[in-house]
Amino acid sequence: MIFRSPRFLRLVVVLLAFARPVAADFYETPEFADVVARTEEYVAKYGVDQVLLVLDIDNTLLASDTALGSDQWFDWQEYLLAQEPDSPHLVADDFPGLLNAQGLLFTLGSMHPPQADLPELIGEIQATGVKTLVLTSRGDEFRTATGRELRANGYDLAKSALETKESLATPFLPYDLDDLAAAGLSTTEAEAMKLKPAKAATYRDGVFMTAGQHKGAMLIAMLHRAKQPYKAIVYVDDHNHHVVRVLDALMRRGVDVSGFHYLREENLVDAFRYSDKSDVSRQWRRLDQTLKRIFEVEEPAAAPAE
Ligand SMILES: [Mg+2]
């Protein structure tokens, strides 16, 4: 039976490869200069107007100055909510409560680039004319604090922002499960990605705030709304699973894609993961108690006895 022949299967793979001469490359690096080099290779190969650089925020463009409120702190809290809901370390009883705490810490705290020359390296790419898209799991409720910290650290990602056919500045649903094609997605993909009903997202000043949704799906939905298609995309994220999801979504579309698992903060993330967390717990309790003392409505004093 020819259809069961491994040689035949190999041939099919080769023919498909010739039909769609694209590649998906995965890299792990703590050096953003590798991203710059790959982007420049794509520019040389496809032309500057055909290349898009897509960037995550937390632990990629920005890292928290404090462990409390950092991306690793948030991941740990999310883990506790799911696995140890009675943990005394928890700052909230549920996910919306955790988001409120994170919002407070984003507002009060400050951030820095994981490597000091990162804004400069991104500036170099922008100077070549390459368009950029910041793709973050942060929701729109954190836009003010996010924009403030990006600006404070010398990033201007609005000037190179991917252009969309229509404004997406006000909250919109990136896809509709009943009309996936309108977002450039297929039913098979939606099943593979385990997509749930979409949550509202916004895209403004080059920053796409997606409220924790599947980054592969978010990128496809955004590219479908872009003014032009791109032949090559470079994607950078500190979370391996986001890189894999984006590579998987793009390579089936004939886009030449390079995914970078950016490791600059990895040692700090690991150190936090294996620490006893007593410092961050104590800090949170002090902050929480202070705020409650100042802002919580006090019980009205009992009326004096007649
Ligand atoms: Mg991140």
Write up what this structure looks like.
With 306 residues, the chain is of the alpha/beta class. It has 2 domains: 20-63 and 113-267, Rossmann fold; 66-109, no CATH class. 43% of the residues lie in helices and 13% in strands. It is built from 11 helices and 9 strands. Strand 6 (202-204) and strand 7 form a beta hairpin. Helix 2 (33-46) packs parallel to helix 5 (118-128) and helix 8 packs across helix 9 (240-251). The N and C termini lie far apart (101 Å). The model is unreliable at 1-19 (pLDDT under 50). Bound molecules: magnesium ion.
Strand order of the largest sheet: 1-9-8-2-5-7-6
Number of strands: 9
Q: How far is the N terminus from the C terminus?
A: 101 Å
Q: Helical element count?
A: 11
**pLDDT < 50 stretches:** 1-19
- How much is the radius of gyration in Å? 22 Å
What share of residues is helical?
40-55%
Range of strand content: 5-15%
Biggest sheet: strands, sense, closure?
Answer: 7 strands, mixed
**Average pLDDT:** 91
CATH architecture of the largest domain: 3-Layer(aba) Sandwich
CATH topology (fold) name of the largest domain: Rossmann fold
Order of helices and strands: HEHEEHHEHEHHEEHEHEHH
The hetero compounds bound to this protein are: magnesium ion
Structural class: alpha/beta
Write the layout of secondary structure elements.
Blueprint: H1 6-19, E1 24-29, H2 33-46, E2 51-55, E3 63-64, H3 71-83, H4 95-108, E4 111-112, H5 118-128, E5 131-136, H6 143-152, H7 187-192, E6 202-204, E7 207-209, H8 215-225, E8 232-237, H9 240-251, E9 256-262, H10 266-273, H11 278-295
Parallel strand pairs: 1-9, 2-5, 2-8, 5-7, 8-9
Antiparallel strand pairs: 3-4, 6-7
Helix pairs in contact: 2-5, 8-9
Bound molecules: magnesium ion.
